[in-house]
Design goal:
The complex is a heterodimer of chains A (397) and B (260). In chain A, 43% of the residues lie in helices and 19% in strands. Chain A is α/β, with parallel strands linked by helices and 397 residues long. In chain A, the strands form three sheets. Chain A has a six-stranded mixed beta sheet, sandwiched between helices. In chain A, α5 links the parallel β5 (106-111) and β6. The longest helix of chain A is centred in the N-terminal third of the chain and has 17 residues, at 19-35. In chain A, 63% of the residues are buried. Chain B contains eleven helices and eight strands. Chain B has helices at residues 25-37, 57-68, 73-83, 97-103, 105-114, 134-140, 156-162, 186-196, 210-219, 227-236, 240-256; strands spanning 13-19, 43-46, 91-94, 119-121, 143-148, 167-170, 201-204, 222-225. Chain B is α/β, with parallel strands linked by helices and 260 residues long. An eight-stranded parallel β-barrel of chain B has the order 1-2-3-4-5-6-7-8, surrounded by seven helices. Classes of the chains: A alpha/beta (397), B alpha/beta (260). Chains A and B meet through β2, α1, α8 and β11 of A and α2, α4 and β5 of B.
Chain lengths: 397, 260
């Protein structure tokens, strides 16, 4: 609908990659265009979603939180209950199945917090493919447990020591690896970013989130929600949560970026708030960068939102005003992490806590007739050590 | 049309790549002058980028180091302005799309014209995206150099057909860096290219020894060398100019023995 032939969303998107990779992305586009309409492929993917990943994920009415905040009715879309503990599995099962159909035997992936790496390692194990995950060296330290999980699942984890040793460098290294080995290898990109057709493919596989929300809320409330709120790094759980509501103009879509220590500091990852238009990692979109176009080192307590760019479709939704993007600080996210744990007995991923935080501000200003859906993109077990550290307590993982 | 064709008019060309500002801008100037004195036919000047996705570790490190010393696009332009007082062979920039885009495409490319930069090589702008820069390039007479890779196959014809300046033939899969062996059937690729264009073809990626340079120029119009030169800069620092000069001389001699 909004993707034209070259994968543009308004001015955003495109295919800014080395010539060496052009035939690889073209081959991927052709395969995807075929399999997305192939009933056998879709049946197998649905079976994996349901039997293996545990879909559909629950839409849970957060009654205590609703009462406590004293405004809009709050529902939580529980992507944290998926197998591997996050929404990442949706995209990975789709891409791994596609790669397998394309005759690839090896998956490579980047990861920030480790959730996408774990999901890719899981799908590779399930489908009998080999797997290599690139992870910034800093992140391998912040998320040591996920490194162990990936290795347990049979993947090789390569710590990336170049640049800032974080997610953007892991993406660069995965692209470099793909450039040197295309024949048997599929790059299983983890977010709605990179060159066309990745933003479209990843969105389509994640769109199951909004498809389910729409049906579930209709059944429970016989209407649409007023707000859908999700956190945004590259933006895959957010676009998945938004996608089927884009046509419903009365549903407000809100993406929560990581402000880190604040959008007026240098320690932030809030791309829409602080970035400008640029070209990087295969796409035109908004990026945190200096006046000469050098990509800025970004910071957030959340390794999964610690990325200097945003997917091109989000950039477009921002330009058109269809979605609104707000910045949430570390402090606010940690407060929400603790609040949801105590109030509902649900420990959200620190990424998802950014969305919870904004809902906490918004809900009291709305009436009881209003409905907010917050996507809990992942579970927070992985973040307990870093939140404890943030609060000045050191615990062993 | 730019002056790039001049680089290929005296036998096979030798094209050194130098990351600007590594280890510092004064060394870059001296290295360019030594390279020209020792027979370089065209100079490829890299403007550093924070995330050079097409580069191997050697050139990546040079990019990071140069940025740490405070190199900027404006400082590179100033350096070229100064070099143009005594350097008359063609020079091109190699950099990433965001460096050009963020500077303002028109402002960047018109400055290239003003300081006599003959072309730009942008590894993250393939054929499908060249309209990002091509209209301004045409307007200011700066060639947008096209690349052909071992995986280009059915794309070679359309790329070659519209190519300007020279064609950059990527010798191997992967990123820049020295390789002991180049296994791609480059002769076959260049045969296809020749059916669609008469502009010169130079081979780059992985070349470091005079023997490799000689073999590459036997099947093309010249050899491009980057990482091997950056390694000399890494080893000798501000003392590198004389060593780069010797290296360029040995490489130029090797390609020069190949008949035109």
């Amino acid at each position: 609908m909004m993707t034209n032939k070259k994968g543009r969303f308004g001015v955003h998107g495109g295919q800014y990659i080395p010539e060496t990779l052009m035939n690889a992305v073209t081959e991927l586009e052709i395969a995807y265009d075929f399999y997305k309409n192939d009933s056998e492929f879709n049946e197998e993917l649905s079976r994996l979603f349901n039997d293996y990943a545990g879909r559909p994920s629950r839409l849970y009415y957060a009654e205590r939180m609703t009462r406590d905040l004293g405004g809009a009715k709050i529902y939580l879309k529980r992507e944290d209950l998926n197998h591997t503990g996050a929404h990442k599995i949706n995209n990975v099962l789709g891409q791994a199945l596609l790669a397998k159909r394309m005759g690839k035997t090896r998956l490579i992936a980047e990861t920030g917090a480790g959730q996408h790496g774990v999901a890719t390692a899981t799908a590779a194990a399930l489908m009998g493919m080999s797997c290599v995950v690139f992870m910034g060296e800093e992140d391998t330290k912040r998320q040591a447990l996920n490194v162990y999980r990936m290795r347990l699942l049979g993947a090789e984890v390569i710590p990336v020591k170049t640049g800032t040793s974080t997610l953007k460098d892991a993406v660069s290294e995965a692209f470099r690896e793909w450039t040197s080995r295309i024949d048997d290898t599929h790059y299983c990109l983890g977010s709605v970013m990179g060159p066309h057709p990745f933003p479209t493919i990843v969105r389509d596989f994640q769109a199951v989130i909004s498809r389910e929300i729409k049906a579930q809320i209709l059944e429970r409330e016989n209407r649409r929600p007023d707000y859908v709120i999700a956190c945004v790094g590259g933006g895959s759980n957010a676009i998945g949560s938004f996608y089927h509501f884009i046509e419903d103009e009365n549903v407000k879509l809100i993406g929560c970026e990581a402000a880190g220590r604040g959008v007026d500091t240098f320690e932030t990852a809030a791309t829409i708030s602080t970035g400008k238009l640029g070209i990087f990692h295969g796409m035109k979109s908004y990026f945190c960068q200096d006046e000469y176009g050098q990509i800025a080192p970004v910071y957030s307590i959340s390794a999964g939102l610690d990325y200097p760019g945003i997917g091109p479709e989000h950039a477009y939704l921002h330009d058109t005003g269809r979605a609104e993007y707000v910045a949430v600080t570390d402090e606010e996210a940690v407060n929400a992490f603790e609040y949801l744990s105590r109030t509902e007995g649900i420990i959200p991923a620190i990424e998802s806590a950014h969305a919870v935080s904004y809902a906490m501000k918004l809900a009291p200003s709305l009436s009881r007739e209003n409905i907010i859906v917050i996507t809990i993109s992942g579970r927070g077990d992985k973040d307990c050590a870093s939140v404890a550290r943030y609060r000045g307590e050191n615990i062993d993982e | 049309m730019s002056n790039i064709h001049c680089a290929f008019e005296h036998g096979k060309a030798f094209i050194p790549f130098i990351t600007c500002g590594y280890p510092d801008i004064e060394t870059t100037k001296a290295v360019v002058r030594e390279a020209v004195k020792n027979g370089a036919d065209l100079i490829e000047l890299g403007i550093p980028f924070s995330d050079p996705t097409a580069e191997g570790v050697v050139i990546q490190s040079a990019n990071y180091s140069a940025l740490k010393t405070g190199i900027t696009t404006d400082k590179v332009f100033d350096m070229v302005r100064e070099l143009r007082n005594d350097i008359h062979i063609p020079m091109v920039f190699m950099t990433y799309a965001n460096v050009i885009f963020s500077y303002g495409t028109k402002r960047f490319i018109s400055t290239c014209r003003d300081i006599q930069i003959d072309g730009i090589i942008v590894p993250d702008v393939p054929f499908e995206e060249k309209d990002e820069f091509l209209p301004e390039c045409k307007r200011y007479g700066v060639d947008l150099i096209s690349m052909i890779a071992p995986t280009s196959e059915d794309r070679i014809a359309k790329i070659a057909h519209e190519a300007e300046g020279f064609l950059y033939i990527v010798s191997s899969l992967g990123v820049t860096g020295t390789r002991s062996e180049i296994t791609t059937d480059l002769k076959a690729i260049i045969n296809v290219v020749r059916k669609h264009t008469s502009i010169p073809c130079a081979i780059g990626f992985g070349i470091s020894t005079p023997e490799q340079a000689k073999r590459m120029s036997e099947i093309s119009d010249g050899a491009i060398v980057g990482s091997a030169i950056i390694k000399i800069l890494a080893e000798y620092g501000s003392d590198s100019p004389v060593h780069v000069g010797e290296y360029v001389r040995s490489m130029k001699n090797a390609v020069h023995t190949v008949r035109h």
